[in-house]
Amino acid sequence: MGKDLKGKELGKGITQRKDGRYQARFTDRFGKRRCVYGTTLKEVKNALMSEIVDDYSKNNVVDPNMTLDQWYEKWMRVYKKPVLKSSTIRIYIRTYHCYIKPVLGRLPLSSITKLMVTDLLNGLGKRLHKSTVNNIRTVLCDLFSYAMDNDLCTKNPAKGIKIIGTDRRKIVTLSREDQRDFFFMAKGCFYYNLYIVAVNTGLRSGELRALTLDDIDFKNNTINVTKTLTYFRKSSKDDFLGYKISIPKTKSSIRTVPMNSICRKAIEDQVQQLNTLPPIDYDSDVLGKLLFVTRNNRPLMDEVLGSSIRTVRNNVNKIRASQNQPLMPKFSAHTFRHTFATRCFEAGIPPKTVQSYLGHTNIQMTMDIYTEVLSDKKMSDIKLLESTMNDINTCRAFQKIS
Fold first, then answer.
1. Are 171 and 372 in contact (CB under 8 A)?
2. From the centroid of its chain, how far is CA 16?
3. Considering the domain 176-343 in this protein, what is its CATH number?
4. 312 vs 30, residue with greater confidence
5. What are the extents of the domains in the chain?
6. Angle formed by the axes of helices 130-149 and 86-95, to 10°?
7. What is the pLDDT of residues 247-273, one digit of tens each?
8. Checking DSSP bridges between strand 222-225 and strand 22-27, what pairing results, if any?
9. What topology is assigned to 2-56 in CATH?
10. How far apart (Å, rounded) are the C-alpha atoms in residues 117 and 144?
11. CB count, 10 Å around CB of 113?
12. What is the pLDDT of residues 284-299, one digit of tens each?
């Protein structure tokens, strides 16, 4: 039994400190000793009873002082890094460090409320797209879900929040004029063959940069897409170059893409170009066989490819500006993929076939992304129908009998 400063019995676990304050101790359901304090005996008894009730009702947590930053490090190490692809890991890291950590990182897990999370997501929604904000909410929701499983918090403050944000970014494709001018200006460029293959196959940048000659089937005129090339920050001197070959994220991304004569010629030219490059100075089974590389015969970064595209586009725009013509919009290597799909739809290729070319998981993804392109095609198709109807209506129904 505890006593006050005058020796009076106060009850089990309750004592009076030298400064006159009262304290009460108890062992919670985690086996951890807890202390509560009060200026009066009644106050400390009420605080003790509240803590005991919370412990019985499982409203307390194992470590009320653990911050979101501390939990994020454990969550990544235990639950994410062992099972996710390196490309997905980088997305999680970037999402947390760019959007979540600056606002909530230093706060104790148990102190983060739904109001705080909603305020964060609403603020991000004013400058980011809905899909991006939703990805941030998904990361937060997963963080708190695992935290609850480990008795680090009692509620998930990221659940049930309505996401706001700007609509999906408009798909950028090259018009026929843009495509013509770009490829005319790109002739002789080191990456010209890659541009040609990209716009004729719809392959993603990572898939293009991971291609080897073994992936090309010249007999059947097809390209086997089975891997992707990613770049990561080297964590140690043992990390080779900072590049990694991995399988695509989804099964549908593993596919066989037909190769037209234009694409085939570009690949054959690329093989000849590889013979003019310096020999590789590293040993790697796959990286040493890449089809599209830098001038130094090294794996190609997406940023380097983007820089080469900007150079060609700027050269086009210099001529257009001098002739008072509309400038070519900014675009990335992914635009070649969108342009390929657009040309497919313009040529009348069914969406289901385009889906297989692009490696989309389902037809709805293809339809959602290219809604505007398909809408434009509907208008052009109805004009063709109108022309056909006019031809029929203007024809004589019967020939005059002589």
1. yes
2. 57
3. 1.10.443.10
4. 312
5. 2-56, 68-149, 176-343
6. 100
7. 887 888 999 999 999 999 999 999 999
8. unpaired
9. Double Stranded RNA Binding Domain (3.30.160)
10. 11
11. 12
12. 777 888 999 999 999 9
Q: Is 324 left (phi over 0), alpha (psi -120 to 50) or beta?
A: left
Q: What are phi and psi of 204, to 5 degrees?
A: -70, 160
Task: Give the domain 68-149 fold.
Answer: DNA polymerase; domain 1 (1.10.150)
Burial class for 8, CB neighbours closer than 10 Å (0-12, 13-18, 19+): exposed
Q: pLDDT (tens digit, 9 = 90+) per residue, 1-12?
A: 677 777 777 777
